[in-house]
Amino acid sequence: VQLVESGGGLVQPGGSLRLSCVASGFTFRWLRMSWYRQAPGKERELVAAISSTGDSTNYADSVKGRCTISRDNGKNVVNLEMNSLKPEDTAVYYCKSPNSWGQGTQVIVSS
User: Fold this and answer.
1) The dihedral formed by the CA atoms of 84, 89, 90 and 94, expressed in degrees to the nearest 10
2) What is the mean pLDDT of residues 39-61?
3) Measured between alpha carbons, how far is residue 97 from residues 19, 25, 46, 75 in Å?
4) Using CA atoms, how far apart are residues 86 and 105, in angstroms rounded to an integer?
5) SS3 for 84?
6) Distance CA 29, CA 60 (A)
7) How confident is the model over 26-45, as pLDDT tens digits?
8) Which of 21, 80, 88, 111 has a Cα-to-Cα distance from 54 of 20 to 30 A?
9) CA–CA separation, 27 vs 38, rounded Å?
10) Whose CA is closest to 85, among 12, 33, 8?
């Protein structure tokens, strides 16, 4: 099982980023997928999750209205579109399947 995230980087407050996670080694289309994040000195927290078919999503209150999770089961990819980014969104963002974690991608929101 492998989850490989990409798309992180440095962005100014108010900016946008699109994170992607490519999955391999399991039947992606059967599984619920999630994005988590961990800021320095804080616990890892759920950002967003999406059902196996993509018809059900849920978001942390802190990102609701600013983030959109989506998936492409034909390409084994789950994305996290983040808009109106704030400094408090700075964290390492992790892709997660029910049993595995990616290595994370760093997002820094700073002017």
Assistant:
1) -110
2) 97
3) 15, 11, 12, 15
4) 17
5) coil
6) 23
7) 899 999 999 999 999 999 99
8) 88
9) 27
10) 12
**Burial zone of 24 (CB within 10 Å; 0-12 exposed, 13-18 middle, 19+ buried):** exposed
Rounded to an integer, what distance in angstroms lies between the CA atom of residue 19 and that of residue 102?
12
Sequence letter at residue 103: Q
Confidence of residue 65 (pLDDT cuts 50, 70, 90): very high
Question: Which of 68, 57, 1 lies closest to 28 in space, CA to CA?
Answer: 1
Contact 67, 82 (CB under 8 A): yes
Residues facing residue 97 across a β-bridge: none
The closest of 56, 54, 60, 67 to 107, measured between CA atoms, is 67
Amino acid, single-letter form, for residue 24: S
